[in-house]
Amino acid sequence: MRFFLYSIVLCLLMLPLSACSKASSPQPSPDRIGSVENSSADEAPFTAPSWRETWSRLSATLQKDGLDEEFTLEVFARLDMPPSPIPMGIKVRELYTNAFIPKPKARPPKSFETKLGIPGPWFKGVVTTKNAKLCRDFMNKHAVAFARAELNYGIPSEVAAALLFVETRLGEYLGKHNAFYMLSSMAVTRDPDSIPEYINKLPGAEDKLPWIRGKMKIKADWAYKELKALLSYCRANHLDPFKMKGSVYGAIGLCQFMPTNIPRYGVDGNGDGVIDLFCVDDAVSSLSNYLRRNGWKSGLSVQKQARVLRTYNAMDIYAHTILALAKTIRQLP
């Protein structure tokens, strides 16, 4: 009897504790999916999904959007770190600066004289005899790849080599980020609260949060499309997304293609059944295919050649630097 009474009292004491436990555990809020959690998974607050749940939701969305389930689950199971604020933070800073921070009064452009007949200015330190020789040595080392691409697409080998030099120093610098991780992070970073280290440094940002949030949504949606294209490319060509270096915004390979450009312009240059933009043969054929399909043809003036190169990168200095370096290569003894 005494034991029975003790048991009843113990059960009554347990009831309020159980009720408190349930009341203090609200469900995660869907609008916080992009948040970066600083605490560990075990210590993460219940008011927002943990970063593992963030990746799980992104994985599920990609599967619903047609990506192979087994491949997608396996890839995101290996992603063992929270979203990085870097890609969205840098992009927001760039957009905000251009929109709201006054620019210093532009100075009159300096005169730029050249014996090459290519407008300037050019990227500093790129158009040199030393770099032209590096390009020529690279062309000689991969002579078959350049000859094949020039024959098939009509892009001068010097232009293709100069573009590779400007983009990645002929493959020596492929970017310091993992393209899969950067695009995944950008795709889930949709709220200014996710990038406080960037927002807090923007003057007047507290009054522009709706504008910032709108821009973040646009860029997150863009990153999602690039992420889907990247994973589709990796699966189709049996490539590991975790071994794919790229830019902060996910451009990959020697030719720095955005993933959505790969199905449109990517070429298997060496015929091995794989489009691998980290392979010289494929990168040279792919960039040559891109330029040809965007208007390059024999007999174009320098101005029209520059116009085609600006479809690759919109800056005048980019196009003019490539043309000047290509001409320097051509004039080597």
From TrEMBL:
Q: Which UniProt keywords apply?
A: Signal
For this chain's UniProt record, which GO biological process terms are given? peptidoglycan catabolic process
Annotated signal peptide: 1-21
Q: Where is this region: Disordered?
A: 24-48
Output one GO MF annotation: peptidoglycan lytic transglycosylase activity
Q: Does the keyword Membrane apply?
A: no
Question: Would the keyword Signal turn up in this protein's UniProt record?
Answer: yes
Pfam families in alphabetical order? SLT_2
Q: Where is the Transglycosylase SLT domain?
A: 120-308
Its recorded name reads Lytic murein transglycosylase
- Source species of the chain: Mailhella massiliensis
Upper lineage is: Bacteria, Pseudomonadati, Thermodesulfobacteriota, Desulfovibrionia, Desulfovibrionales
